[in-house]
Design brief:
This protein is of the alpha+beta class. The chain has a single domain, classed as Umud Fragment, subunit A. Helices cover 15% and strands 31% of the residues. It contains 3 helices and 12 strands; from the N terminus they run αβββββββββαβαββ. The protein has an 8-stranded antiparallel beta sheet. Strands 6, 7, 8 and 9 form a 4-stranded antiparallel beta sheet that branches. A hairpin with an 8-residue loop joins strand 4 and strand 5. The radius of gyration is 21 Å and the shape is globular. The N and C termini lie far apart (43 Å).
């Protein structure tokens, strides 16, 4: 018995649907939102420990590459940053956004704490950011308020890591995407 054209179409649609719904681990997937925002989604493995307590080394995260082409970068976002053109981006937390008033305040132990909009800034673990001479020196090169298109990004280590304490404020164009934690069985 020959299949009817309607049955053939149904088989083709089922096969195409299966291909589109296959897991995308290790591959890029194109995402298109209702507002015509288009970006790619890919799974990455975290290698460093600068966000320990929030995202552990060896964890898998989803990188939404190009997400900020049509979304605002917000304080608290975890972002992927193109650090000095490395093939692997670094991930950090956005602590300061444009127009934030900020300064470094001396703490009792000779280090400086970060204050943004009148509030002492803390890591996600609740520890204050305390910067030694080099981290404070780099940050003190930048004006307050944070200029348009610039962001202060930090790791979760109170004394700093490879973040704005070493390379200063970052430009929006160098933030390549948003990071989302991947649950055990997403």
């Amino acid at each position: 018995m020959k299949p009817k054209p309607k049955q053939i179409a149904s088989i083709i649609i089922t096969v195409l649907a299966a291909v589109v719904l296959l897991p995308t681990f290790g591959h890029r997937t194109l995402v298109k939102e209702k507002n015509n925002c288009t970006y790619t989604s890919e799974i990455k493995t975290v290698r460093g420990n600068s966000l320990a307590g929030l995202i552990e080394p060896g964890s898998e995260v989803r990188l939404l590459r190009g997400y900020y082409d049509c979304h605002e970068i917000r304080r608290g976002d975890i972002v992927a940053y193109d650090y000095a053109g490395n093939s692997n981006p670094i991930i950090k937390r956005v602590v300061g956004v444009p127009d934030d008033d900020w300064y470094l305040e001396f703490s009792g132990d000779g280090r400086k704490t970060l204050v943004i909009n009148g509030v002492e800034q803390m890591t996600t673990l609740g520890d204050p950011y305390l910067f030694g001479t080099s981290g404070a020196k780099m940050l003190s090169l930048y004006p307050s308020p944070i200029p348009p298109g610039a962001y202060l990004i930090l790791g979760n280590l109170p004394g700093g890591s490879t973040d704005s304490t070493q390379f200063g404020l970052v430009n929006k164009k160098d933030i390549i995407g948003k990071i989302i934690k991947v649950l055990e069985r997403e």
